[in-house]
Amino acid sequence: MAVITLAELADKLGAELHGDDTTEIHSIAAMGKATTGQITFLSDSKYRQQLTECQADAVMLREADVEFFKGNKLVVKDPYLSYALVAQLLDTTPVAATDIAASAYIDPTAMVGSNVAIGHNAVIEAGVQLGDNVQIGAGCFIGKNAIIGNNTKLWANVTIYHDVVLGSQCLVQSSTVIGADGFGYANDKGEWVKIPQLGSVRIGDRVEIGACTTIDRGALEDTIIADNVIIDNQMQIAHNVQIGYGTAMAGGTIVAGSTTIGKYCIIGGASVLNGHIKIADGVTITGMGMVMRSIEDKGMYSSGIPLQPNKEWRRTATRVHRIDDMNKRLKAVEKQLKANDE
After folding, report:
1. How far apart are CA 151 and CA 323, in angstroms?
2. Element (H, E) at 145
3. Which long-range contacts (CB under 8 A, 24 or more apart) does 325-333 make?
4. Could you write out the three-class secondary structure of 12-62?
5. pLDDT tens digits for range 225-245
6. Which SS3 state, helix, strand or coil, does residue 276 take?
7. Helix 310-321 and helix 323-341: axis angle, to 10°?
8. CB 334 within 8 A of CB 317
9. pTM here?
10. DSSP letters of 204-249?
11. Which is nearest to 39 in space by CA: 77, 10, 63?
12. Among 78, 182, 237, 257, which residue carries the largest CB count within 10 Å?
C-alpha cells in the first residue's frame, strides 16, 4: 500500500495546503465514504453541503469552497484533475507481467528492449520490436514485424497483427485485436471475392484502448490513430479510419471504413458513424448518435431518441409513419389556399 503525506501531495499537485502537512494518505475515496487515511475531492460546488459530514483526512477543493470544510484541505484549480493525479500516485494496479516467462515464445529475430516483461504463453513473432519497459500480458500474440513503443502495456490476450505500429506509453486492455483484416470484398455474380488488406494500423503515443475492441488494418493505406486518443471497450474501428489528436470515444461505438474524425472530438456510447465521411475538429456526438453524413462545423450533435413509456412511444411511432401522408395533405391544402387567393 502506497502512503504519501499531505505535504508531498501538495508539492506534486502545486496545491495550497491548509492543515497538518504530516498527515499520511494511503488511498482515495468518494466523499460520502472516505475516512481516516483517505483523501477525497469536491469538483462541483452544488455538493458542498456534504463537506459538513465528510470524514476524510483531507479534501481537494477550489478556493471558493474552502470555508465549508474544517479539516485538512488542498486548494487546487481543478479538483477532478487533481483526483486523477492522486489516483495515479496511489494506484495499486498490478503489472501485466513480470520478467519473461519460460513459457513465452520469442522469435530469435525479435528485438527486445531493456526491462521488458512478457507473460506466460505469449508469442512474439519474427521481426518484432519491443521498446524499453514494455509489458506484454499472458497469452498475447504479437505478429511479424510489429513495433511496440517504450512503456506500453498490453493486458492478457491482446492480439497485435503483423506490421502494426503501436506508440509509446500506450495501454491496451484484454482481448483487444489490432490489425485484423478490414471488411473488404468484391462481388462476382453473387460470389464474394476477398480483397487482401495490404495496409496496416499506426497508433500514436499515449493512446488507451479498452477491452474487446477491434481496430482493422487498412485496405491499401493505413488505419491511423493519433496521439492522446482514448477508446473505450467493445468498439469497432474499420479499415482506413483516421482519428485525430485528443479524441475520446465511448463504448459500443462503430465507425465504418474510411471515415476521418478530427481532433478533440467526443463520441458518445453506442454511436454509429457512416463510412467515407469527415467529422470536424471539436465535434461532440451524444450517445446513440447515428451519423450518416459529414459534420463540417464544431458543436454538439444528437440523434438518439430518449426512452419514453411504451404507450407514448407507440403514439410517436404511429405519427412518424404518417408524416408522408400528412405532408401530402398539407401541400394539397396549401395549393388550394393559393388557388383561392388568386
Report:
1. 57
2. none
3. none
4. HHCCEEECCCCCEECEECCCCCCCCCEEEECCCHHHHHHHHHCCCCEEEEC
5. 999 999 999 999 999 999 999
6. coil
7. 50
8. no
9. 0.92
10. -SS-EE-TT-EEEPPSSS-EEE-TT-EE-SS-EE-TT-EE-TT-EE
11. 10
12. 237
Q: At what angle do helices 6-13 and 79-89 cross, to 10 degrees?
A: 120
**Quick one: average pLDDT of 119-123?**
98
Q: Report the 10 Å Cβ neighbour count for 212.
A: 14
- Report the alpha-carbon angle 197-207-146, nearest 5: 40
The yes-or-no verdict on residue 342 having pLDDT over 80 is: no
The per-residue pLDDT for range 89-99, each reduced to its tens digit, is 999 999 999 99
- 213, 235 contact by CB (below 8 A): yes
**Which tens digits make up the pLDDT trace of 170-188?**
999 999 999 999 999 999 9
**CA distances in angstroms from 8 to 24, 80, 147, 329, listed in the order given:** 9, 18, 37, 73
C-alpha cell at 61: 477543493
pLDDT of residue 1: 67
DSSP for residue 307: P
Q: In this structure, what DSSP letter does residue 336 have?
A: H
Catalytic residue among 18, 120, 239, 276: 239
- Give the N- to C-terminal CA distance of the chain in Å, as an integer: 87
* DSSP code per residue over 194-209: E------EEE-SS-EE
- Is 239 a residue of the active site? yes
pLDDT at 41 over 70: yes
- Counting residues of the chain whose pLDDT is more than 90, the rounded percentage is 94
